[in-house]
Specification:
It contains 22 helices and 21 strands. It is α/β, with parallel strands linked by helices and 578 residues long. It folds into three domains: 133 residues, no CATH class; 135 residues, Beta-Lactamase; 284 residues, P-loop containing nucleotide triphosphate hydrolases (Rossmann fold), CATH 3.40.50. The chain has an eight-stranded mixed β-sheet. It is elongated. The N and C termini lie far apart (69 Å).
C-alpha cells in the first residue's frame, strides 16, 4: 500500500461513517420526527455499505466523503458544472498526486477527466467509488470556493464579481482598503479585478519576511498597491499555481505557467513565472491583452519623415529589419504592426516565437520547444522549407540563428527579428561580436529600429509648465544636436513650450495616461555598409548614422516633448541623454 493510499485510508477511518442529524432532538421533537430521522440514517448507512461492497467486488478503492476534509485546491481541479455532469469530484490534491471520487468510475468520461488533469498538473491520478449521498456532500463543498473557478488552466471570473470590486477601486490606494477586509478566497479575484481596471501589464506578488507585497506595472512603472500578512502566503501561492497549471509542491526551482481570464468582454491570457526567494517565492503574472498590441503601423508614433523611410525598407521584398531595446520597450508591438501591414492574401508569413503571446489572424505562428530541440536556429531552417515570403523570428540570440536569418535575407525573404542592445547603433557590432561576417551582414540588413516607451501626459489634466534651468539645458543640448540631414524642422527656441499633467483622479494623480514610442531608425546606407568591419564599434556607427540623418531616440523624444505628448523628465528617465 502506498503512503498516499495509507493517508487516505487513515482519513477515511477518522471521518467516514459519521452521521449528522438535521432534525430537532429536544423534548419537543415528535416521536415521528425521531423515527424518520433514524430511518434516514439507516438508509444512508445501507447505501454506503452497498456502495462499499460494490467497490470491493470490483476491486476498486472506496471513500465516504461525509466529514472528509476536502481542500479548495482539490475541488478546483474539476469545475462544478463538470462535477455535476460526470457525478465526480476531486477530493484530494497534493501537487504530485490527485484522487477523483466518482459514482460511475468505469465511465470513459471519468478516465478522460483524469487524463486531462494529469496532463495539466503533471500529477499522478486515481479514482475512488462513492455513493450518490457522498456526491451530494462533495458538490455542496463547492459553496466554500472563491468566486472564481478553474477552467483548464484558466480562471472564469464573473463580470458581476469584477464590477462589484471595480466600483470600489477608484485609485491605487483603494486596492489596499479592499484587500484589508477581504477573505483569502477573494484576494485573487480582487487582484485580477484591479489589474484589469487600471490597465496593468504585470502583476508582481512577492513574499517577504513579514508580509506579502503586491505591485502593478502600469504604463511601464512598477507601483506597490497593497500588502498582506505573511501567513496568507501559502494559500495565495497555492491558488496561483493551481490555476496556472504549476506544481504546488515545487518551491525550490523556477516554474512557468499560463492561464486565461475568461470574460464576456474578451479573454485575457496571463503568463505566470515563479522563482524561489529567501522568504518564499516571487510571482510575476503578465497580462497579455490582444488590444494592447492591436496597433496599426501608422499609430506607432514614428515622425512622418522617419515613417516614410521605414515604409520604404518594409516594402522591400527581402532583407532584414531588426528592432532593439530592453524587455518592455514595445519591440513585439512594433513587429506585429509591421506584420499586419504586410499581411495580405498574396504573402505567406510565418513566425517563430518563444512563446506565442498574441494570436494573429492569417499568420502561421510557431512556438519553439527546447525540450524537443525545436530552437530558433532549427525552427528557422524548417520554416524556410515552407517557402515563406516573410519570416519573423522572436529573437536572434546566437551565431547559428543569426547566420540562418542572414542567409534567408540574402535569398529572397524579408526577415524580421529583435536583438537585445541598448540602441540601433549597437546592433551592428553585436552581430559582428556573435561571429557574423561583415561582408554578409552588409547586404542583408535593411534597417535597425531602436525604441523605448515613454508615458504620455494625461490630456484631461494637461497644463503648461517651466523646466528647471538644469533640465532645460539638457533638453536644449539634445534638440540643437539634431542633424540637418534628418529634415526635421525645429521651432525657434523662444517658441518652445513644455507641458505636464497636473494629476487627477482618472490618472491616479500621476499626470500620465498611456504610453507613446520614441524611436531611432538606422537605415543601412552605402556609406555605413562600406564602413562595416570586424573592428567597427558602436560610437563609430552612431556618428555615421547621424551624418546620414538619423535622429536618436532622445532627440525623437524631445521633439515629442515640444509636441506636448510627454515630458522631458520622462524622456530622460527612459532613454537618457545619448
Amino acid at each position: 500500500m502506498s503512503k498516499l493510499t495509507q493517508s487516505i485510508e487513515d482519513l477515511i477511518a477518522s471521518s467516514g461513517g459519521k452521521t449528522v442529524s438535521s432534525g430537532k432532538t429536544g423534548p419537543e421533537s415528535s416521536v415521528q420526527e425521531k423515527f424518520d430521522e433514524k430511518m434516514k440514517e439507516v438508509r444512508l448507512r445501507e447505501s454506503e455499505d452497498e456502495t462499499k461492497r460494490k467497490a470491493t467486488s470490483a476491486g476498486r478503492q472506496y471513500v465516504n466523503l461525509k466529514g472528509f476534509p476536502i481542500s479548495p485546491e482539490a475541488l478546483m481541479q474539476v469545475p462544478q458544472e463538470q462535477a455535476e455532469t460526470l457525478k465526480a469530484v476531486c477530493f484530494l490534491s497534493t501537487g504530485s498526486d490527485f484522487r477523483i471520487a466518482a459514482v460511475n468510475p468505469d465511465d470513459e468520461k471519468i478516465k478522460e477527466l483524469i487524463f486531462q488533469i494529469a496532463e495539466r498538473t503533471q500529477a499522478a491520478g486515481g479514482v475512488y467509488q462513492i455513493s450518490e449521498e457522498s456526491l451530494r456532500v462533495g458538490i455542496k463543498m463547492y459553496e466554500t470556493l472563491p468566486k472564481f473557478k478553474i477552467v483548464m488552466k484558466g480562471v472564469r471570473v464573473s463580470d458581476e464579481e469584477l464590477e462589484r470590486f471595480q466600483k470600489e477601486l477608484k485609485s491605487y490606494a483603494d486596492i489596499q482598503k479592499v484587500l484589508s477586509r477581504a477573505s483569502v478566497s477573494d484576494i485573487m479575484t480582487i487582484v485580477m479585478a484591479a489589474a484589469i481596471e487600471f490597465g496593468t501589464s504585470d502583476i508582481h506578488i512577492e513574499a517577504e519576511e513579514k508580509r506579502v507585497v503586491i505591485s502593478f506595472r502600469i504604463d511601464g512603472v512598477l507601483q506597490d498597491v497593497g500588502e498582506l500578512p505573511h501567513e496568507f502566503w501559502k494559500k495565495i501561492i497555492a491558488r496561483i499555481k493551481l490555476i496556472s497549471g504549476l506544481k504546488i509542491n515545487v518551491t525550490e526551482r523556477p516554474q512557468d505557467g499560463r492561464l486565461t481570464i475568461f470574460l464576456k468582454s474578451g479573454d485575457t491570457d496571463v503568463r505566470v513565472s515563479t522563482i524561489p526567494t529567501a522568504w518564499g517565492e516571487s510571482v510575476v503574472m503578465r497580462l497579455l491583452r490582444p488590444s494592447s498590441i492591436a496597433v496599426e503601423f501608422s499609430q506607432l508614433g514614428f515622425r512622418p519623415l522617419v515613417e516614410k523611410k521605414l515604409i520604404h525598407e518594409v516594402d522591400k521584398p527581402h532583407g532584414m529589419i531588426i528592432t532593439t531595446g530592453p524587455t518592455g520597450s514595445g519591440k513585439t508591438t512594433t513587429l506585429y504592426a509591421v506584420l499586419r501591414k504586410l499581411n495580405t492574401p498574396d504573402e505567406k508569413i510565418i513566425t517563430l516565437e518563444d512563446p506565442v503571446e498574441y494570436k494573429l489572424a492569417g499568420i502561421n505562428q510557431s512556438q519553439i520547444d527546447h525540450t524537443k530541440n525545436y530552437t530558433f536556429a532549427s525552427g528557422l531552417r524548417s520554416i524556410l522549407r515552407q517557402d515563406p515570403d516573410v519570416v519573423m523570428v522572436g529573437e536572434i540570440r546566437d551565431l547559428e540563428t543569426a547566420e540562418t536569418a542572414i542567409n534567408a535575407a540574402l535569398t529572397g525573404h524579408l526577415m524580421l527579428s529583435t536583438l537585445h542592445t541598448n540602441d540601433a547603433a549597437g546592433a551592428l557590432p553585436r552581430f559582428i561580436a556573435m561571429g557574423v561576417k561583415p561582408f554578409l551582414l552588409s547586404p542583408a540588413l535593411n534597417c535597425v529600429i531602436g525604441q523605448r516607451l515613454t508615458r504620455k501626459i494625461h490630456p484631461a489634466c494637461k497644463e503648461e509648465t517651466k523646466l528647471d534651468p538644469e533640465t532645460y539645458e539638457r533638453v536644449k543640448k539634445i534638440l540643437l544636436d539634431i542633424p540637418k540631414e534628418s529634415g526635421e524642422i525645429i521651432a525657434e527656441e523662444s517658441q518652445w513650450k513644455f507641458y505636464k499633467g497636473k494629476g487627477c483622479e482618472v490618472c491616479n494623480n500621476t499626470g500620465y495616461k498611456g504610453r507613446v514610442g520614441i524611436y531611432e531608425v538606422l537605415i543601412m546606407t552605402d556609406i555605413i555598409r562600406a564602413a562595416l568591419s570586424e573592428k567597427i564599434d558602436e560610437y563609430q556607427v552612431r556618428v555615421l548614422a547621424k551624418q546620414q540623418g538619423m535622429c536618436t531616440m532622445q532627440q525623437d523624444g524631445m521633439l515629442k516633448v515640444l509636441d506636448g505628448l510627454t515630458t522631458a523628465d520622462e524622456v530622460l528617465r527612459t532613454a537618457g541623454e545619448g
